[in-house]
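Now for a specimen:

…
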Amino acid sequence: MISAIRVGLRLRLGVLLAGIAFALLMSPAAQAGGLPDLGVRFLPAPEVVSPGSQVSYSIVVTNSGPVAATLVDLHVASRNQTTFPFGSTVTQDLSLAGPPGWSCIFLALPPSSYSCSIASMPAGTANFVFTLRTNSGASGTFQVGASVNSTPADPNVANNEATINGTIVSSVPALSPARLALLAGVLMLLGLFALERGGRMSAQ
C-alpha cells in the first residue's frame, strides 16, 4: 500500500516537473534566446553637403546571435526629401554595395529603394556603402533610412531601423585676391566719403 502511494507521488512529481520544464522552454525569454538578434546603424557622416555632390554613407548590419539569421534583407533609401522647382527630389539614389555573399538590387517600384539580401547571416557584422547624389540647384534637407529583417522574425525589433539626416547648402564662392583688393578699395572709398560727409555736417 505504502509503495503504491510512493509510486503515485513520484508519478505526480514527474508530471509536475515535466510541465514546469515545458513552460520554461516555451517562455518568451527562452524562445528569444534561440533566435538571432539583428540590428542596423549608420556610421558618422557629414551632415552638410553641397548641391551636385556625391555622398556615401557607411551602414553596419549586426547579428548579435546566438544563432545565424536566415533570409536576411536590408532596405536602404533616401526619403522625406525636400523638393525644389518642378517637383524634383533633391537626391538621386545611386547604389548600395555589400560584402561578398550578399545580393543587392534596385527596387524601382515607388517608393524606390535598394535591397540587399542573403540566405544566412552568422553572428557578426556586415558592412555596406550607400551612395547618393544631390541634384544641382537643390537645397533643403533629406533623410536616409535603413531597415533590416529576417525570417523567422527578429524578436528584438528596437534596433532594426536607423536614419541619418543631411542638409544641402550652397557653398559661398571664394574671392580671388584681385576681387578682395577691389572690395577693399570700394570699402575704403565709402569710408572716406562717410568721413567727409560727416565733417561737412559738423561744420554747418
